[in-house]
């Protein structure tokens, strides 16, 4: 997340190579690979049941202050408002999404045992502070009750720029901002070739992962008609900066081709003198030529480019690492499960090769059809195309979970009980065995024992 001083001391962009290096500089040897996990939780009060505003004695700012006192982390600000905090000892921190979703950007971990321990400590501190404020944490992909107009807005300048623009470029962009919550895994690469292989595998598999983690069947107080409404939201959010990136599978793809894609995505903002300047819809290429109408003659810094890269939202995003963006938020076990799945698939050579063999013949049409249909039917989505590689998405999910499990077993990273990282795949194995996503579990409850009382989910899906 860019701070208000993001433009200070950043060197100017002097050549096309600088654009590429902003991503290629992430290449690192295997022994330095880490696992980053980011997760967003909806906040709510129970007395009465309502969203949590930023200010006031029981607001988000008070939650931030309590967590700051517990952890010793340091605030960062948007003007005078604390909008998050950083852990100065290990990279990582807490930030706020537009509707108050409380996000931990986890520190880079060597293994999933560390990821699970970090999640447990974060929730321990957050719940300790939150309990005194009647602030609770909901592990769902979309807020089930409240409309966009009912959601509080956090005092972040970039969101004041993004929201109006989202209203012009898609039908559900503001729902993405204010009502959705995700969990994502960030992984490293060793070289351009390694990045390309991992990006292709993870892009192709992202709809299958969306199906496994489907956990947002409700919207506006009732059934949404989707098992992952969060994923449906992204299908209707600013097509210039979202999607499955079919060009990634073209011959010759690499860092330079991704830079060209990023240059073609309209801008949101730049930061100058601690202030966000609204340049929504402008062309970064014109910025390179000093032709932005808002700042005539100004040319971009490396930090401007890095900020721009952070405003791209494809299903997998490339920066100095790869961000897996396809999963709904769930409970703590599902957070660890996502990172375990991607670590098992991408950090073991045998597993990565098996995953590539699995997806290498999928067509762009198949990948896009899966992306469009999975939000509705998740694991029950029939396999598209003329060649039926699987009966349905559940068959593909079963295979990739098996590949990931074998990869984690080969990694053989043990906890103090002698267990390897494959233990964290248990929630996914249970979903496949029971033939029931979390979304379908909630729908069964809603239609049955809850008697249509959706407020019950705030108790049962509380983290």
Return Rg in Å: 21 Å
- Secondary structure class reads alpha+beta
Total helical elements: 17
Summarize the amount of helix as a percent range. 40-55%
GO molecular function: ligase activity
Function: Catalyzes the synthesis of gamma-glutamylcysteine (gamma-GC).
Catalytic activity: L-cysteine + L-glutamate + ATP = gamma-L-glutamyl-L-cysteine + ADP + phosphate + H(+)
Subunit structure: Homodimer or monomer when oxidized or reduced, respectively.
Task: Please describe what this structure looks like.
The protein contains 17 helices and 16 strands. It is of the alpha+beta class and 463 residues long. Strands 1, 2, 3, 4, 5, 6, 7, 8, 15 and 16 form a 10-stranded antiparallel beta sheet that branches. Helix 12 runs antiparallel to helix 14. The N terminus is likely disordered.
């Amino acid at each position: 997340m860019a701070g208000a001083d993001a433009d200070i001391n950043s060197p100017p962009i002097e050549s096309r190579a600088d654009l590429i290096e902003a991503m290629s500089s992430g290449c690192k040897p295997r022994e330095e690979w880490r696992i980053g996990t980011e997760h967003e939780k909806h906040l709510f009060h129970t007395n009465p049941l309502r969203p949590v505003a930023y200010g006031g004695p029981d607001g988000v700012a008070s939650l931030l202050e309590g967590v700051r006192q517990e952890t010793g982390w340091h605030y960062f600000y948007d003007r005078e408002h604390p909008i998050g905090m950083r852990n100065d000892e290990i990279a990582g921190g807490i930030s706020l999404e537009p509707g108050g979703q409380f996000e931990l950007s986890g520190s880079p971990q060597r293994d999933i045992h560390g990821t699970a321990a970090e999640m447990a400590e974060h929730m321990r501190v957050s719940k300790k502070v939150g309990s005194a404020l009647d602030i609770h944490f909901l592990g769902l992909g979309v807020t089930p009750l409240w409309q966009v107009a009912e959601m509080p807005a956090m005092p972040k300048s970039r969101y004041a720029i993004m929201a109006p623009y989202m209203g012009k470029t898609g039908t559900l962009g503001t729902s993405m901002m204010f009502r959705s919550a995700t969990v994502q895994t960030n992984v490293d690469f060793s070289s351009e070739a390694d990045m390309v292989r991992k990006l292709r595998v993870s892009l192709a598999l992202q709809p299958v992962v969306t199906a496994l983690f489907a956990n947002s069947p409700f919207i506006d107080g009732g059934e949404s008609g989707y098992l992952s409404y969060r994923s449906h939201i992204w299908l209707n959010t600013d097509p210039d900066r979202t999607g499955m990136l079919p060009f990634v599978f073209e011959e010759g793809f690499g860092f330079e081709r991704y830079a060209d894609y990023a240059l073609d995505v309209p801008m949101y903002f730049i930061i100058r003198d601690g202030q966000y300047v609204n340049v929504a819809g402008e062309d970064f290429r014109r910025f390179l030529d000093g032709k932005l109408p808002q700042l005539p003659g100004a040319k971009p810094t490396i930090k401007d480019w890095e900020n721009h890269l952070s405003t791209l939202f494809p299903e997998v995003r490339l920066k100095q690492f790869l961000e897996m963006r396809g999963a709904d938020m769930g409970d703590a076990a599902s957070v660890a499960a996502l990172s375990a799945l991607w670590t098992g698939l991408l950090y073991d050579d045998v597993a990565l090769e098996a995953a590539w063999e699995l997806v290498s013949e999928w067509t762009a049409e198949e990948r896009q059809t899966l992306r469009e249909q999975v939000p509705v039917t998740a694991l029950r989505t029939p396999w598209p195309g003329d060649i039926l590689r699987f009966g349905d998405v559940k068959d593909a999910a079963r295979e990739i979970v098996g590949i990931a499990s074998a990869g984690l077993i080969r990694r053989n990273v043990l906890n103090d009980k002698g267990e390897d990282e494959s233990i964290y795949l248990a929630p996914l194995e249970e979903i496949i065995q029971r033939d029931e996503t979390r979304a379908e579990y909630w729908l069964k409850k809603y239609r049955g024992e809850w008697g249509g009382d959706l407020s019950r989910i705030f108790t049962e899906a509380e983290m």
